[in-house]
Write a structure and sequence with these properties.
alpha+beta, 13% helix, 4 helices, 22% strand, 265 residues, 11 strands
Length: 265
């Protein structure tokens, strides 16, 4: 609350606000975010396009779309756009672990990360057990620290089935959507490192009667790489936010290095 006004922040995508009207809404065979169904996604793209995309990203952080063919739950969609998604999440791809998150971070399946600032954050270092048995460290060192306990993943371009992807259905085909959705977000982490905490929090938020993104688990296969279990999440856009608080919500873009530090009155 700000005075007598309630401010509702939501992460949003500009996709729907800036795009043309949907003229081809592909219905599919099963609900995209039906958690009772077994989902599958196949992405196929030219390796040269992927290599060029990765080169540009490592050079200056650019996250350009490349063309790919998508098969989702047996439904084929040609020429969708795919790009890397995230900021601090992608730090390991550029060799800058912890730089944007403000600390070593929690690395699934590995040990505690190193705090690049040379000291512990506010509240001291918070440690716990990582899924792989090692010690996990919250980025920023504790509550209130920069990064807000962001999880860091050891991502590799050699394992695209584990990368965080944003799939844009209408990037190269105007007016197209899949079950009303223009974008699908694939979270980082695969198989035993799937972020179940996010799925749990979304489920609990929904059960409490609040608005939350829809989600589902899917098997993802990229080109001829092995399949991996992934969490797919609804990409919140302007229409999503307008459905909250009777359309009176205020949109904010979350920053990777943001925190809840007190800024004063």
């Amino acid at each position: 609350f700000l005075g007598d006004a309630r401010v509702s922040p939501y992460v949003t995508s500009a996709s729907r606000a800036e795009a043309d009207a949907v003229t081809d809404d592909v219905k599919g065979t099963v609900g995209l975010y039906d958690t009772s169904a077994k989902h599958s996604i196949q992405l196929t793209y030219e390796q040269a396009d992927f290599d060029k995309m990765m080169k540009e990203f490592k050079k200056d952080g650019t996250k350009d779309y490349i063309e790919a063919d998508l098969t989702i739950d047996g439904v084929y969609l040609n020429d969708v756009g795919v790009r890397l998604k995230g900021n601090s999440t992608l730090s390991s791809l550029r060799g800058t672990k912890g730089a944007q998150g403000g600390g070593g971070g929690f690395r699934p399946g590995g040990g505690a990360g190193n705090d690049t600032r040379g000291g512990s954050g506010a509240g001291g270092a918070g440690t716990g057990n990582a899924p792989g048995g090692g010690q996990a460290q919250r980025a920023g060192g504790g509550p209130g620290g920069a990064g807000g306990g962001m999880v860091q993943y050891d991502l590799s371009a050699a394992k695209p089935e584990e990368l965080p992807w944003l799939v844009k259905i209408d990037e190269f085909v105007e007016g197209r959507a899949y079950q009303g959705e223009r974008e699908i977000s694939l979270r980082p982490g695969s198989n035993e490192q799937v972020p179940l905490n996010e799925a749990l929090s979304l489920s609990l938020t929904t059960k409490s009667g609040q608005k939350a993104e829809r989600y589902g688990f899917t098997e993802l296969k990229v080109n001829n790489r092995p399949a991996a279990t992934r969490l797919m999440v609804e990409a919140p856009d302007t229409d999503y936010a307008e459905g909250v608080a009777d359309g009176n919500g205020v949109l904010y873009k979350a920053r990777a290095n943001g925190s809840f530090d007190y800024q004063g009155d």
